[in-house]
Amino acid sequence: MRLPIQLIIGALLTSFFVIAVLVSFVWTPHDVTVLTIADKLQPPSAKYWLGTDHFGRDMFSMLMVGARTSIAVAIVAVGIGMGIGVPLGLMAAANKGSLLDEVIMRGNDLIFAFPSLVIAILITAVFGPSAVNAILAIGIFNIPVFARVSRGAALSIWTLDYILAARTFGKGRVRISAEHILPNIANLLIVQGTIQFSLGILAEAGLSYVGLGAQPPTPSWGRMLADAQTMIYTKPMLAILPGMAIVLMVLGLNLMGDGLRDLLDPRIRRER
Amino acid sequence: MIRFAATRLLSLALSLLMASIVVFAVVEVIPGDPASYMLGLNATPEAVEALRNELGLNGSLWARYIGWVSGMLVGDFGQSYTYRVPVSDLIAQRIWVSLPLAMIALLMSTLIAFPVGLIAAARRGKFSDYSIMGLTQLGIAVPNFWFAMLLVLVFAINLHWFGAGGFPGWENGILAGLKALTLPAIALALPQASILARVMRSSLLETLTQDYIRSARAKGLTRAQALRRHALRNAMIPVLTIIGLQFSFLLAGAIIIENVFYLPGLGQLIYKGITQRDLVVVESVVMLLVFAVILVTFLVDLAYAAVDPRLRKR
What we know:
The structure holds two protein chains of two kinds.
Chain A: H1 5-26, H2 59-94, H3 99-113, H4 116-126, H5 131-158, H6 161-168, H7 173-209, H8 221-229, H9 236-264, H10 266-271
Helix pairs in contact in A: 1-2, 1-9, 2-3, 2-5, 2-7, 3-5, 4-5, 5-7, 7-8, 7-9, 8-9
Chain B: H1 2-29, H2 34-39, H3 45-55, H4 61-73, H5 87-122, H6 127-141, H7 144-158, H8 174-208, H9 211-218, H10 223-234, H11 236-261, H12 266-275, H13 279-307
């Protein structure tokens, strides 16, 4: 089987950032917690590969450590969405048409009706700005997405013959959902997971940018952009670099998601 | 049709009720007493207590909720703690920045996405399709506030075509106002246009596989003619859904974009409200945004049902 080209490019871009994060735990070119004011706003050089910011911190190291925040927030937010949304969706599908199904789906609609960013801002405002609250705020809006996707996919599987067979053997709804439905919708969930992951990175950047995400001194791409904004007249590079990092990371994840979908869903592959 | 509209209206009212409870509950949790915040550190307990009474903070939760909701129903959003003016006045001033901004962005996004999606679908598998798909992929990945900063860098700082931020007010001429909103609107519109163009393309491609398109081709229409006369209209349903959804993204996205351009809109109001513990302002603006989103969804649903009778049974 030929791998889709988007999948290869996407996986390469994504693994580039993942590797950067892993390396950042053991080594960065400079220590980002040390402020070297004497070296502030340096252009790129052999010592500082991408130059330094207004506190004399090395931009390259900042970007490496900033990726940590983005990826951690996005991973946990997707985890919350999947961990709560998928069981809810499976439950709704297993009891289609029941009151439970109705309650779950109307609850989903309700969350969808809220402008997610506004509520994220509200949540971080109520509980104080921090990376943890940003995770919660982003994670809550992942729940209805996964609930809806898993319910829709599960419903179509429930009509299949092997589910009927499993039922005649006396398996309950919970067991069927866990043993037969879940493995068969896993590929859809993985694709949706990549998409939500990239949306999570964008959301984290937005929240940190308005000061409601990760707090200093924790480096984060959104915060770096906010800091750079006041210096955009004199040092545009400080604003361009973190933005490029966000774009490449999100682009990589989206391409990977598209490629995975093509690979895992033969129906779409034929149509294209 | 009337029955459909009535059930949708009922669910609209129900959503609003639930939303108001959620917003009220969340805002009530905000730590910090607005009265002591307003009076500063040196305020006497008596003064704080008096202000709490004046602001109606001493009533029961239930009474405050009922007061808030019944006030909103007649357009009275209460008094802002910090500005000391009715919240409805604050909203009225600022909505004329945020609403036009979202509308212009929506218009831009639609005007860009339609032809682009159409070209990509019509030339599927060709070079123009691939380059459009690549560009929209990039457009989705760009955070709008960063794109806004780049626009400022290029068009305001280097080329001096636009101001870098601020808003002159509509009273200084519509053109000046529109000019101030141009860069923010472009920044908001670009990612949305990318999404919309992709939806447009895939919806058109889906429609093109239908039997009636084959019939149209069989009677001698070219691919382009079949696309224009038969596929386009049928492909519109998912596209309209996305446009409806995008309105809420644009209104909410305006909050961050207004920060980049220092625009005095609803976004700035809510942001300041949060930092200054102005609960009434925060509650009201969030509720207003939620109302706008629910209303738009309702109208889109209704419009579909009017156009396509199949959708009335649900």
